[in-house]
Specification:
The chain is mainly alpha-helical. The protein has one domain: Orthogonal Bundle (Arc Repressor Mutant, subunit A), CATH 1.10.10.10. Helix content is 58%, strand content 4%. It contains five helices and two strands, in the order αααααββ. It has helices at residues 10-20, 25-32, 36-49, 55-64, 66-79; strands at 83-84, 91-92. The protein has a two-stranded antiparallel ribbon with strand order 1-2. Strand 1 (83-84) and strand 2 (91-92) form a beta hairpin. Helix 1 crosses helix 4 (55-64), helix 1 (10-20) packs antiparallel against helix 5 and helix 2 packs across helix 3 (36-49). It is globular. 16% of the residues are buried.
């Protein structure tokens, strides 16, 4: 089964990747420096975007498509070496999950 990852954000792919690595919500929020609530919101959005029934299916999806998710995330990361801050504040370092 092939899936179009274009409608997923980099952050959603990061969360999917961490789910595939069996991270708990608290570990995901710590790793990505997000609140627990934000992680839950991303997971809810992923369930909707992927047309799944619940977060259990989301976990199964992440594990099943782990390799595809990792490849897509690496492509996005490679294309964005650093993001320039538009207000002249310099470079913004991104949180690496690999």
């Amino acid at each position: 089964m092939e899936f179009d990852y274009d409608n997923l954000s980099k952050r959603e792919l990061e969360i999917l990747h961490l789910i595939s690595e069996y991270y708990k919500n608290s570990e995901i929020s710590e790793k990505l420096i997000l609140s627990h609530h934000t992680v839950e919101t991303h997971k809810t959005n992923l369930v909707k975007k992927l047309k799944l029934k619940n977060t259990t299916e989301l976990t199964a999806f992440a594990i099943l498509f782990k390799e595809h998710i990792t490849i897509q995330l690496q492509k996005i990361t490679a294309n964005r070496d650093k993001t320039k801050n538009n207000n002249g504040g310099g470079d913004i370092e991104e949180t690496a999950i690999f």
